[in-house]
Amino acid sequence: MRDATVSPFVRVRGAREHNLKNVDVDIPRDALVAFTGVSGSGKSSLAFSTLYAEAQRRYLESVSPYARRLFHQMEVPEVDEIEGLPPAVALQQQRGSPTTRSSVGSVTTLSNLLRMLYSRAGDYPPGQPHLDAESFSPNTLEGACPRCHGLGRIHEVTEASMVPDPSKTIRERAVAAWPMAWGGQNLRDILISLGIDVDTPWRELPKKVRDWILFTDEQPQVPVYPGWSHDEIQRAIRRKIEPAYMGTFSSAKRHVTHSFATTQSAMMKKRAARFMIGRDCPLCHGKRLRREALSVPYARRQMVNRGSACKWPEHTR
């Protein structure tokens, strides 16, 4: 039984370690407590640099000076007061680095333990073979949803996102998702060589033509005569007049997705993102895992992956 004189909370007052700004918080004792927040919010500063450091300091005060020399002691934390801290606090931590799947820099081993729990003690549907722990991780080939690749969200381009003003013509840069300056002009000149009307309002072009311009995977290479009309270009080709250069067409979708995935320029990535629409993956519904893993509950709860951690869905708590 709990001693009635012992506070049910660890009371922290005036925590100022690293990026903490005089934080006051009451943390439940004898409970599994998670510190959550955006990257840089001070989770590790509170859990490790404050609570763990103070617990270690108090523990080392109880051992002999000789034994104390054998430990690597953390510095005294910047905090006004900590009450109700248990005699010993043991924490495990792994250091990570930001990735596309997580902006978290430090994670605990709880995720791995949960995945092992589901793989060994989960309630498997009849006939489904048992999965290993890796199958419950969205960061592995075995576990990641094949549609969103374990991200939980997909990013798509649509006609409306790439052509915000359909009253404009192609010459007037109706296809806003195309590159600016020469790159966009090059693509417009290629369309003229292909015989596509660049002076008709976008909305009046046939849908088949609009879809091809925006979404085709084809990359035809055609002669480019900048500033010439399509008829003039056809006559030049018949007369075997040398073009200014050979241009390769690229659809608006191809340009946006390729730029977003490969560019090293933050500015170009930000511009490409303007034309993309993000939504929960329709296959895993944002849960990041394959269907096989999602079909295995434990205690009637389904594994849900957010960031680098695994946790219960809100409605089952």
Q: What's the CATH H-level homologous superfamily of the largest domain?
A: ABC transporter ATPase domain-like
The strand line-up of the biggest sheet is 2-1-3
Give the helices and strands as they follow along the chain: EEHHEEEHEHHHEHEHHEHEEEE
Any idea of the CATH class of the largest domain? Mainly Alpha
Gap from first CA to last CA? 26 Å
Q: Percent range for helical residues? A: 25-40%
* Beta-strand proportion: 5-15%
Backbone shape? elongated
Quick take:
Belongs to the ABC transporter superfamily. UvrA family. This is UvrABC system protein A. The protein has 10 helices and 13 strands.
What does this structure look like?
The two termini are 26 Å apart. The chain folds into 3 domains: 83 residues, Rossmann fold, CATH 3.40.50; 80 residues, ABC transporter ATPase  like domain (ABC transporter ATPase like fold, Up-down Bundle); 120 residues, ABC transporter ATPase domain-like (Helicase, Ruva Protein, domain 3, Orthogonal Bundle). The strands form 6 sheets. It has a 3-stranded antiparallel β-sheet with strand order 2-1-3, with helices on one face. It has a two-stranded antiparallel sheet with strand order 4-5. Strands 6-9 form a two-stranded antiparallel ribbon. The C terminus is likely disordered. The chain is built from 10 helices and 13 strands. It is of the alpha+beta class. It is elongated, with a radius of gyration of 30 Å. The longest helix has 18 residues. α8 crosses α9. Helices cover 29% and strands 15% of the residues. β10 and β11 form a beta hairpin. It comes from Sphingomonas telluris. InterPro entries: P-loop_NTPase, UvrA_DNA-bd. It is found in: Cytoplasm. This is UvrABC system protein A. Keywords: ATP-binding, Cytoplasm, DNA damage, DNA excision, DNA repair, DNA-binding, Excision nuclease, Metal-binding, Nucleotide-binding, Repeat, Zinc, Zinc-finger.
